[in-house]
Specification:
The complex is a heterodimer of chains A (177) and B (253). Chain A has 177 residues and is mainly α. The longest helix of chain A is centred in the C-terminal third of the chain and has 25 residues. In chain B, helix 3 packs across helix 4. Chain B is built from nine helices and seven strands; from the N terminus they run αααααααβαββββββα. In chain B, 48% of the residues lie in helices and 20% in strands. Chain B has 253 residues and is of the alpha+beta class. Classes of the chains: A mainly alpha (177), B alpha+beta (253).
């Protein structure tokens, strides 16, 4: 049975990571209201399992729960989206890096980067958000996503290749939308 | 290493995840091989764009409160035990007394017995920042004793405007401000002086309302409070009382 002191301790340890939790959920659901719902649910789940937390790294522990809650939510509400992302992963293979690198030396509009990141498959998006926006190490990203470090490395590499494609398309055409 | 091997390691290299030996090998190769150097540079360019773009979403204002409320709803209300009638009132009184005692003990010992909570960790981060600011000879980005110079300097560098007070009449002259990084975000650092001692006051926005903390670690005193939508951390090696006076002056409207 939870007690007031437990809630307090949980909040002390986990609430400082609220922004990180929300940021991840926001990028994975791509919608602010859904992100709020998912984060609330994730905090509740985290509280339930707080007894299993031995104080190693609160952010990684919490974000692992947030990402699982997100993917469960995506499977339930946006199954189509996840399916396409997996298909794309198979089809795109290794052939992504032929586009002109020069474009990246020019500064892309922030919106282009945001759009290009948003259209990546969820697993790639997740790896990039954790690495570039949360500044997590490969090991931490691997712990959150529950995959080996090697998988993180290939997701980052392929995610970045795709991102470059998306960016250069937008920079050439002056934006897609 | 071949170009293919090098290019496979480019991501780990720009992410700073390579060991020293490999980093040096790559470094050497990039000097000699233009093709690899371009790939490397492109990845660095992409990383730079991530750093420059405001892509990180901040949680909406009400979310923290909603979570706190939801968590509190999981605490069950005390259930009266079903014994003979005369007991009811007593067990309630007893339960209330126990709860009260627990609360009082919690408040009294909470601060002493607390394990390294996020606040304590943050306090260590604050001290580290303070020490670094003194060591690296990088105390102020904007050295000025004028609050009307320091405050506007932060415009455009931060997404909030820190309150800057002039306390020179009270013996704590402002000497400047700089950008710092704490709690995973850019923060304002205001630099005050007390005789030969430097006081760093770190300020950033937060929804915390009633948080307070005072502690001493490695000879540095730290005072933390929150209010008016901002969180404050003052740190210095001046004596505890003077830092307390300083904090009180800053807190006074």
């Amino acid at each position: 049975m939870p007690e007031a002191s437990q809630v307090g301790r949980f909040e002390d340890v986990m609430l400082p990571h609220l922004d990180a939790a929300y940021n991840l959920a926001r990028w994975l659901t791509r919608n602010e209201h859904d992100a709020e719902d998912v984060v609330q649910e994730a905090f509740l789940r985290a509280f339930k399992f707080f007894g299993d937390f031995y104080g190693a790294d609160g952010r990684t522990w919490l974000l692992a729960i947030v990402r699982n809650t997100c993917f469960t939510w995506l499977r339930k509400n946006r199954a189509g989206e996840l399916a396409t992302s997996f298909d794309e992963e198979i089809h795109s293979g290794e052939s992504a890096s032929e586009n002109p690198e020069e474009l990246l030396f020019e500064k892309a509009d922030h919106r282009y980067l945001q759009e290009a990141l948003e259209e990546l498959p969820a697993e790639f998006r997740e790896a990039l958000v954790l690495r570039e926006l949360e500044g997590m190490s490969y090991k931490e990203v691997a712990d959150v996503a529950n995959v080996p470090v090697g998988t993180v490395m290939s997701r980052l590499a392929r995610g970045r290749d795709r991102l470059k494609e998306g960016l250069s398309l937008r920079m050439k055409s002056g934006g897609l939308k | 290493m071949s170009c293919t091997e090098i290019q496979n390691l480019v991501h780990a290299s720009v992410d700073g995840e390579l060991d020293l030996v490999r980093s040096i090998e790559i470094e050497r190769h990039l000097h000699e091989c233009e093709a690899c150097a371009r790939v490397h540079q492109a990845q660095q360019g992409l990383k730079q764009q991530f750093r420059d773009a405001p892509l990180r979403f901040r949680s909406p204002v009400g979310l923290r409160r909603n979570i706190q409320q939801t968590l509190r709803q999981t605490i069950p209300a005390a259930v009266p035990s079903r014994t003979w009638p005369g007991w009811g009132a007593w067990s309630w009184a007893g339960a209330a007394a126990v709860v009260l005692l627990a609360a009082v003990l919690g408040i009294v010992f909470g601060h002493i017995l607390r394990e390294p909570t996020s606040d304590n960790l943050l306090a260590q981060e604050v001290i580290a920042s303070h020490v670094r600011s003194l060591m690296a000879n990088h105390l102020a980005d904007v050295p000025s004793t004028d609050q009307h110079t320091v405050k506007p300097w932060f415009d455009g560098k931060l997404d909030f405007s820190p309150p800057v007070k002039d306390l020179s009449s009270a013996g704590f002259p402002l000497t400047g401000g700089r950008l710092d990084y704490l709690d995973n975000r850019p923060v304002a650092a205001l630099v005050y002086q007390r005789a030969k001692h430097v006081i760093n006051l770190f300020v950033w926005p937060s929804m915390e309302e009633s948080s307070e903390l005072a502690l001493t670690h490695q000879g540095y005193h730290v005072i933390h409070w929150a209010g008016g939508g901002m969180t404050y951390w003052a740190v210095s090696d001046v004596n505890e009382k003077e830092l307390g006076d300083f904090a009180a002056l800053i807190r006074r409207k």
